[in-house]
Fold this protein.
Amino acid sequence: MAYYEMQESNLPNEEGKRILFPRMKLSGQTSLDELAQNISHAGTFTPGDVKGLVQSLIEEIASAMASGRSVKIDGLGIFTPALGLRKGADRETAGDDVAQRNAASLCVNAIRFKADKGFVTRTDAACRLERAPEKFRQSSDRHTTEERLKMAQDYLETHPFMTIDDYCALTGLLRYTASRELRQWKDDPSKGITTTGRGTHKVYVKR
């Protein structure tokens, strides 16, 4: 059984009214260890066999994408590498007289995944939904954008770093909205906020 909740869209519809859309309420995350245990119970493979096979598959997918290929796994989907600039590298601009970026300034910074339609259908067929008993939350609007920026700046004056969860607690924003706002400020040097670290270890610091 999975729960869903109805959340309010940030944008109004053509009539100017805010509309609701369904969102699955995730209750946790399944690990490779759990998947391996479940697969081993249904077949002759040991959990170690399953984990070893998955790790080998990951290595092969990464190797194929590193050589400039997308990877299609029937029934699962297509993996495609995406490029970006390394931290500190300037973006290239158009024009014949402009210095071009060399390979050292580029990196694979994301993997795009497009799910196979059969994978989506299989997930839907196994899904049993029930409306969550709790009412959906909205981001708080008790503070203006300028007030929230000042709160973040003041926080970083007395703390070495700030996480997205810290900012949510300060402002009352939901995590998605808080993350989007912090990214906007990080991209504007005048706001005095930047980031350090990568992935799940990325935090916001005073610029």
